């Protein structure tokens, strides 16, 4: 069983990885935009297009790799706590139901 300190460390690590994945996602979106703007152009724009395509691919691969590795780590933690997929689904449904109920109260 994980201690409170180990859980805290895991949570901090997860938050750092989330920020890194967000960074790579934003960069990939920016380079995709640059790629689309310079598509079918000539001259320097062709070089920019090639550069944007390569950087977009790089950031997509980096973000995906980080996300997958973090999901595997989280799966191990869930297994250690004996949390099943059904438990996670029930919890997610409960959160959605509570959020929907609070929205309905406000309107």
Tell me about this structure:
With 107 residues, this protein is mostly helical. The protein has 3 helices and no strands. It has helices at residues 4-38, 44-80, 85-106. The termini are far apart.
List key phrases describing it:
107 residues, mainly alpha, 88% helix
> What fraction, in percent, of the residue positions are helical?
over 70%
Strand coverage percent: under 5%
Return the structural class: mainly alpha
What's the main sheet like?
none
Instruction: Please work out how many helical segments DSSP would assign.
Output: 3
According to DSSP, the number of beta strands is 0
What is the succession of H and E elements? HHH
Through-space gap between termini: 44 Å
- Kindly report the average pLDDT value: 88
The coarse silhouette is: elongated
Low-pLDDT regions: none
Query: Nearest-angstrom radius of gyration?
Result: 20 Å
Question: Could you give a short description of this structure?
Answer:
By secondary structure, the chain is mainly α.
What's the arrangement of secondary structure elements?
Blueprint: H1 4-38, H2 44-80, H3 85-106
């Amino acid at each position: 069983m994980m201690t409170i300190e180990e859980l805290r460390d895991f949570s901090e690590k997860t938050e750092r990885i989330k920020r890194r994945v967000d960074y790579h996602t934003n960069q990939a979106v920016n380079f995709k935009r640059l790629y689309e703007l310079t598509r079918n152009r000539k001259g320097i724009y062709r070089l920019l297009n090639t550069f944007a395509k390569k950087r977009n691919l790089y950031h997509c691969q980096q973000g995906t790799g980080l996300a997958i590795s973090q999901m595997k780590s989280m799966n191990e933690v869930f297994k250690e706590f004996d949390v099943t997929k059904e438990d996670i689904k029930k919890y997610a449904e409960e959160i959605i139901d509570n959020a929907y109920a609070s929205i309905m109260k406000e309107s």
